[in-house]
Write a structure and sequence with these properties.
Length: 211
C-alpha cells in the first residue's frame, strides 16, 4: 500500500518558533523515565548518546532504537519543549501487521507471516529475518486460544477456553456450532480429562513397578 511522504529531517523549534540549535532529544522506555539504548545506524553497531544533541540548525541525526519509546525534546538547558509517548517501529506498524524486511522489530514484537500464522520476535534489532518457514533463531511461532463463542462454528481439534468454568476444551467434531463445551460431551472434550488419564496411567505403572 502506498505511504504518505514525510519529512525525514525535520527542524525542531522552541515554543517561540526559534530554531532549537543544540537542543536535546531524550528517549525513554514508554511510560517510564528509564533511558533506552540508542544507535546511529540501523544495525545497532554505532551506539548513540541519550539524549541525542540536535545540530546547530535544530535537526536530529539518524537515531535508531528497538520497539517503542517515550520521546522528550528539551532546549540546551533541559527546559522541556514537548513529550510524545509512544513513538517508534511497532507503534506505526501495529501489532499483527504483515512481516516486512525493512522494519526493525524489537523483542516480543508480533507479526503475521506469509503463511498466515503469528510469530513473536525473540531477539532485539530483528530486521530482514523472515519468520517463514519456522523454526528460526529470531522468531517463534505462537497461537492464541479463543474464548468459546456460541456464534462461531469450530473445526475438529479446535481448542477453546470456556469463560464460565475457566477450563479448556477440544472440539471432537467439525462444524461444531452452538454446542456449549460444558454440556456437550459428544462435541467437546475437556483437556483436563486427557491430562488426568495420563496421570492415572503413570501412577498405575509406578504402583505396578513397585509391587
Amino acid at each position: 500500500m502506498p505511504l504518505r511522504s514525510i519529512n525525514p529531517v525535520p527542524q525542531y523549534l522552541d515554543a517561540a518558533g526559534n530554531v532549537l540549535g543544540y537542543g536535546k532529544m531524550y528517549f525513554y522506555t514508554s511510560g517510564t523515565n528509564d533511558l533506552i539504548d540508542l544507535f546511529f545506524d540501523i544495525n545497532g553497531a554505532l551506539p548513540a548518546p541519550n539524549p541525542v544533541i540536535l545540530s546547530a540548525d535544530g535537526r536530529l541525526p539518524n537515531t535508531f532504537f528497538d520497539g517503542t519509546a517515550k520521546q522528550v525534546l528539551t532546549d540546551l538547558d533541559d527546559v522541556q519543549i514537548w513529550e510524545r509517548d509512544p513513538v517508534g517501529g511497532e507503534a506505526f506498524e501495529g501489532v499483527f501487521s504483515d512481516w516486512n524486511s525493512i522494519t526493525v522489530y524489537g523483542e516480543s514484537a508480533i507479526v503475521t507471516g506469509s503463511d498466515g500464522n503469528y510469530y513473536r520476535s525473540i531477539s532485539a534489532g530483528n530486521q530482514n529475518n523472515n519468520p517463514v518457514p519456522p523454526p528460526t533463531a529470531e522468531w517463534e511461532q505462537i497461537e492464541f486460544i479463543s474464548i468459546w463463542n456460541t456464534n462461531i462454528s469450530y473445526d475438529i481439534n479446535a481448542t477453546v477456553k470456556l469463560s464460565s468454568d475457566g477450563l479448556f476444551y477440544r472440539s471432537l467434531v467439525g462444524s461444531n456450532f452452538g454446542n456449549n463445551p460444558a454440556s456437550s460431551p459428544a462435541e467437546w472434550q475437556p483437556l483436563i480429562t486427557e491430562i488426568t488419564d495420563k496421570i492415572k496411567t503413570t501412577a498405575s505403572l509406578f504402583q505396578y513397578m513397585n509391587l
